Predict the 3D structure of the following.
Amino acid sequence: MQPKFTDRILKSPSAYILVSHGSRDPRPQAEVDKLASLVSQKLGSGNSVGTACLELAPLPLHGQIEAFGSRAIASQFHRLQIVPLFLLPGVHVMEDIPSEVDIARSKLDLPIEIRPHLGIHPDLGRLFANQLSSDDAEGKILLSHGSRRPQGNQPVEALAACLGALPAYWSIPPSLESRVKELAIAGKKKICIIPYFLFPGGISDAIARAVDIISQELPAVNFRMRAPIGASTELADLILDLVKE
């Protein structure tokens, strides 16, 4: 009988590291730790799921990978899988993480594989759609940090189209304010802001402040701001898909 996907995962010879950007704000790391715990629970007994940060950690990423990899070897894991917790294929995903992993590979006698970044999962949009299923907003804005890489924002534009939303970006045009004015001119009185961010932190706070300022300028418009995705069993399931043996 063909084994179920879950059965294959339980017999995995791999250890796993969830790699996030890193922040001085403790909230993102708390969410990453929660997500790692959820993934570990789904993998079952005898697994090893760790976390690491690309920036703002005491050790560089390659040092964190080396330390975790040494423990994985001692626990007789035969492979290490790196899961980038990033939504867009920007410079961190395409250059920084691979460079750090290459350094770790040169120092560890353990195969290391970088899995696709989280934002590439085709079911990620379902998490947003579920959030919005009961929303009666007349206009929606999907707000991402934004990437300057060619085609780097295509995933945001595709998801926005699926959600019936306008894409906007925090670091590049079109901005949140310009998109809000566009909807307001079109007569939309109920506008939903959907942050395309994994976890709450400094940027989500800054977005909330920006929305508050805009709402004072447009008192006739009712604004609602959704929370970032956050750690959940559904997000853990997507990660399990990405590390499928």
